[in-house]
Amino acid sequence: MQAFTQVPSPGSARVRGELVLLLLTVILCGLPFLGQPFHMDDNFYMDMARNVRVSPLFPNDRPYGFGGEYLGDMASHSHPPLVTYVLALLQAVFGERPGGEWRYHAVFLVFPVLAVLSFYFLAALFIERPLWPSLMLAASPVFQVMSHNLMTDIPALAFVLAAVAAFLWAVETGRGILYAAAAVSLFSAMFTSYQAALLVLLLAFYLAKRGGSRAGSAALAAPCLAMAAWLGANYVHYGRFILLGTVDYVRSRDFASLGSLATKFVALLQYQGWLIVFPLFVICFFGRSAKGRLAALLILTSIYGAQAMVPVYRLVDKAIFVVGAAAGALVMLRMALFARQAFARRGDGTGFGCTEGRFLALWYFGAAAACLSLFTEGSARYVLPLVPPLLLYYFRQLEMAEVSEYRRAGRPWLRAAAVASGSVVVSLAWGLALARADAEFARVYPRLARAAARAAGGLPCYYGGEWGFRYYLEQAGCRQLPRDQSRVTGGSFIVTPRLAVPYHLPADLSSMAAPVAELPMVPDTALRLLGGQTPAGFYSTGWGLLPFSVSGGPLETAEIRQVNYLVERLPWAEVEGGGIRPWPGYVAIGGVSRPAVLLEPGTRVAYGWELEAPARFEVWCGPADGAQAMEACEFEVRLRDGAGETRARARAVLDAGSSGWRHLSLALPAAQQGAVLKLELRYTAGGGRRPVGAFADAVVRPAGP
Amino acid sequence: MSRLWMEARVGAGTLCLLLCAALWPSACGTPRPAVRDRPPEGELLGGLRLASPVQAGGESPLRPHVPVRRAGETRDATVLIAPVAASVALGGEAGRAVLECLTAPVFNMGDGFLLEISLRRAGGRETVCRRYYDPGRKASDRAWIVLDVPLELGEGGAAELRFELSGGPQGDLTADWLALASVRLVRAAAGSAGR
Asked: Looking at the domain B44-187, which fold is it?
């Protein structure tokens, strides 16, 4: 079957008008988000792109720390490097100055444009009005949200749609240039995302059903050979088959257990229910069967499912779950019925030709199977490949319903035409709302990085997190927490997020660090796509089963800790007097355990002062057990220069019988190269009891203005 | 009829291929062998697993399979929490052997702790190693430390190694955790006295 009456040539006024409308839709939807900060895994591709200058053939060949794990190279990353090369080109042209994100996003609009225009030509093979599914693709929330970042999902979808459209039209028309275009697009798709290789099987099926051709076989074989050659070159370079590392990673994440599969399946329903066509229209149109009883039954089942699977969710989250599950189940059920019809003896009744129907059914269920079995968890972006066949089926059904409604005496309250236009308009509005929520999510991290950099004020600062958090903290001058944690010295700040894949601090480092500040970040929208005290899991089911949620609380909170200078530097300190060498321990101040250096009376400890920025040193002093000082005791902190002159001093005297902690604070200059500065602690106590003294919760803060 | 049947087979075959390709990772690959840090200097008699002491309530003072990172090296370790005594049977080995293991204090706090390893046989008890760890005050203790303990196992027979961890001189048990990794028994090479 060829739905379009003729090949949709861009020379035709109708086609040209529709293409312009699609182009404008994508660009206008993208314009408000051009300035969106780099987000999620954008940072990873930017990091690898920088390495193209060092290792142009193998850009992933560099040691890399991710999520607190440190690897020798990233060759076994889940995606080949086409997007990395594009970004390397953009880095060479635009540089990486702050505020320059819009240039990258403007160039990356080429991918959603390619996806939508390719889908238009593809849809022209299947339905009479290809404009509608193409508009719907541009309007669908998952497509809109993913169009505003630098990750591989939209580029891969664009190349997949270009490959399918070119290949199917090549088979229909026999034009060699289309076969060549299909081969190039297919290779680009595979070089963007490995799973696009599954497309070869799908296209081979179509080719076989259409009688096969040598040019078609060559167009499918050439990209496979090119990928094989690239993998072979990697084997020679790295000395291993890089995909085995990818497979090992997936296997290590318990991806095929029953619980994991169930989570991914429920998420698949949720993403399809909320993020492709607005669920109201899915339920109204697909739920018409059996006079609406099917929809009612699925909603009821979803209510029970919510109570069984997510009993701890808030009521609003349960409502989101129920609507998403019911709409998603309706979609999958209708697609299953469609597949059954398509593979029935004659394959008719689907609204498509026999081959086209089977092709779409295989595409949809192949992509769904990949979502369940290839990935370690559920993610909205993984459902992008099944959106095109679903939209083609949805709009074909609407076309057929529109015709049949005219013949019926009683028309439904929501007619097919209203469903079609309503689907596009409401989904567009919904998609823009979610895209804005995602942009607000992205904007949290530059703000957070500025606040963290202010708090560190030039003192050494490390971060332990990913996504935009990593990119913007790096831009603010912080360094990644090193693999060898012993390089993180006393006085260093460590910033970790709650949401953005916080690194697990090694126990030794953690034992010496104490929190000094918390930075809660509240975005300018109540919609949440990920976490933030909600079960929203748009990017990963690791945070929850819902594609979105609502909350007025902080989306992200960063914790700033400081490695205690006195504790970490103690092995290198000079000690005089006292019986036992001072040791690090914990004391309770205000009911909270704080790291401290514990000294016997008559002890002097001298630390080398090495921080290269002016700072304020603050410390709490008192008897280590927090009890009353039976005898008078004195705590002193002093900074001496190389000549022994005192540069700063603070002391506290506890009279006999007094209790509590005394706070000492003194301004310290930056350590100059070659100059010797010593920070001295002294503790003296009279009488016979001689309690152990503590210099606790020492904090080095950047000097104020 | 035959054409329809063929089409159905092609369709089903393609779907199967798609599913197989999707499920491929779960059906291939072999687990990687554990990597030893260094080859034994003599015949490897086997890895040793400490028996958890019976604990009446509370958390066990012996925790197996804890990933511990020290100076950038992460190892799967058994963590002993002072005060604790744990033992391991030697399985009737005879002659001279070396107990090899990597040890690391888990934290950098506290007044240190003492590890004492003793060999218990029918004939009595012999302390074969005493080591004081003080990561709070000694920088060289903030790393993985190789511990090679020469053992004279005599004629063989029932014997066990006992690992005892106790607090430091100030009696402070804060953060007195010791990680043990790659614990193994190696037949001593001729002329080797361990390190």
From this structure: Jelly Rolls (2.60.120)
